[in-house]
Amino acid sequence: MKVEAWIFGGLMIFFAIVTPVYWFLSHELTGTVALILTFFLVMMICTYLGLVSRRLAARPEDRRDGEIAEGAGEYGFFPPQSKWPLFCAVSFALFVLGPVFGWWLSIIAVGTAFATLTGWIYQYYRGDYAH
């Protein structure tokens, strides 16, 4: 986590320098406030990563003598094929189009989203994958 903390520390320095320069060149309030809030967001993430890195053991990425093979391992199980993400996306598209064409479409989309999310969650309990 130390590498990540250093990256966000560098971003913090960048936004600390860019924000006053932006203010003096543009005198625009909205962009300056956005840059200030971005600085504080990056500071919050940097602080969190710095505190967590003290509690955890050093990872291969944090050591100079770390090898790539030390960080290898199983990343998780990913399905080879699934139809449920497509149906969830269609349900979301219907939900977003609801205010345009009528709120009744959003209500239908909530029902279909419930059904498609249930299918996505329980896809390994039925069918070819349920071995």
SSE sequence, one letter per element: HHHH
Query: Helical region count?
Result: 4
Distance between the termini: 38 Å
Oligomer kind: single chain
What Rg do the Cα atoms give?
A: 23 Å
Major sheet: size, sense and barrel closure? none
What structural class do you assign from the helix and strand content?
A: mainly alpha
Helix coverage percent: 55-70%
Mean pLDDT: 90
Domain tally: 2
- The poorly predicted ranges are none
The total strand number stands at 0
Q: Beta fraction of the residues?
A: under 5%
> What general outline do the C-alpha atoms trace?
flat
Task: Describe this structure as you would to a colleague.
This protein has two domains: 2-65; 84-129. The radius of gyration is 23 Å and the shape is flat. The mean pLDDT is 90. By secondary structure, the protein is mainly alpha-helical. It has helices spanning 2-26, 29-55, 84-101, 103-121. Helix 1 packs antiparallel against helix 2 (29-55) and helix 3 (84-101) runs antiparallel to helix 4 (103-121).
